[in-house]
Amino acid sequence: MNAVKAIVAWLVRKGIVFALIVAAIAFHQFVWPLISDGTARTAATEEWKSPAEIRTNLINLKRQAIADLEISQRQFLAMSGTELEATLQEKRSDLAKTDLDLKQQQGWLASVRPTAIIAREKLKLRRGKLSAEIALLEAVIDREARRAAFNRISFPSQSAVEVARIACDRANKAVRTFNNGSYVKRAAANLLDNRAVKLTQTARAACLSYKSKRSARETGLAAGKVARAELEASQVALAQVRNDVAARIHDYSPDVTKQTVRSILLKALLVLGAIIAMPFIIRTIFYYVLAPLAERRASIRIKVPGAGNVPIPPAENSRVSVLITLRKSEELLVRQDYLQSTALGAKKDTRWLLDCRHVFSSVASGLIFLTRIRGEGENTTVSAVRDPFAELTEVDMPQGAACVLHPRALVAVAQPEGQPVRITSHWRLFSLNAWLTLQLRYLVFHGPCRLVIKGGRGIRLERAERGRIFGQDQLVGFSADLAYSVTRTETFAPYLFGREQLFKDRVEQGSGILIIEEAPLSTRQKGGVRGGLEGAFDASLKAFGI
Questions:
Q1: How do residues 383-439 score in pLDDT, each as one tens digit?
Q2: What's the CA gap between 46 and 115, in Å, rounded?
Q3: Which pTM does this prediction carry?
Q4: Under 8 Å between Cβ of 140 and 77
Q5: Is the Cβ–Cβ distance between 73 and 133 less than 8 Å?
Q6: Among 65, 230, 213, 207, which residue's Cα sits nearest to residue 144?
Q7: What is the mean pLDDT of the chain?
Q8: Cα separation of 197 and 178, whole Å?
Q9: What is the DSSP letter of 310?
């Protein structure tokens, strides 16, 4: 199995090195040429623009569009005929293409990339400019058409009408004069020259010419008046369009309040900074505000009626194995994984639970399927068969003595036959110290009995004397007559950087003893998912005093 793990680890390491080599070659061949000629640097600079820089860029583009539109106006006004029509068709084609470009997908992160934002706003600006130019061209073409229609109108002049009127009057006068002459003259003239008919025909033709010219002039004057009005209207419309298209470009103000890559990265950096700083801020508040308040809370005292005043004698130094010699009418309950050797003549059987009144505690702490050994003077060696770091010590609990103890540290109990060790539960649900130490229930073991206790790299019994301070994981048990509370860790910097816990356990001065584990983490797995789950499970067990 280890060989397979070693092979897999070697393959993974070599695969990572291979991937890095491929990335380096690709960078040298494809990315570096772009950087060397400035293309990548320019693109990176463009993508790093802020919303204010984008607005400035677009304002400059608007100014350029206004200047271009003014040039277009002068050009359009100088055009005529087919040139105007061709230009109009070209602008309409460009507008249709721009609309298609605007309808296309914006691309990856287009809403936050400055280059994409500017490109889209350029299209919108171009569309506005094209719309303005098309409106201007249509107005110019309409004006030119009205002007051509006005110029095509022709009619007789007033003098020509007057000349025709005079000719009509003269012809009529000649007819009247002829008719007013003597009969002889008229008869002779008619006979010789058919004078009356000719004079009448001349008068009729002259008057018809006069009436035709007069009617043509009246009709032409009316049509000219209408055409002039239409030409003037087209000129006014052209002027209005020119004003409107300029205002349309001036009023173009794109909404560039959206986020950009730069603003998102800056906000992400701020959030990251807040995430990094928040634990330090919280720890500072806890250290200088919460911890002093907690220290002033009342200590936890376990009241044991009729017991707890008998002192517990000191124990020997912890060692790898402990030899238990059974006394008269005494039995030994020992966990299977700590039973190293027993006497040949000892009586042995199985005890299912350490205490039937505390089933959950017995099961959770591993005090089940215990081996019970009997026989006066029989020797039993108790040792950690599977834990290389565990050391043991024996604590003698005389009659009347009481000790708060975590059952997880208990590996064997020597007790009088027929008199199981008495275990009592004491809850402290309304104590702040209990919540701060995450221990809401305390299990008290009452004598007479002998307890074999284990600990990582050893177990130490020491007197409370003037009071002691120690890590929360180190305390395995203490005499029931002691006052138990919490105190703030001595130094701020280690706690600030997560090297120490905020609170340590504190036992005030007294005559009792403390049972302290030397290295509580040496026998527990740390790190990883399993370590985290085990840590949460251990915390829940500690809350129940296990």
A1: 988 888 888 999 998 988 888 888 889 999 999 988 888 888 888 888 777 787 777
A2: 6
A3: 0.53
A4: yes
A5: no
A6: 230
A7: 78
A8: 11
A9: S
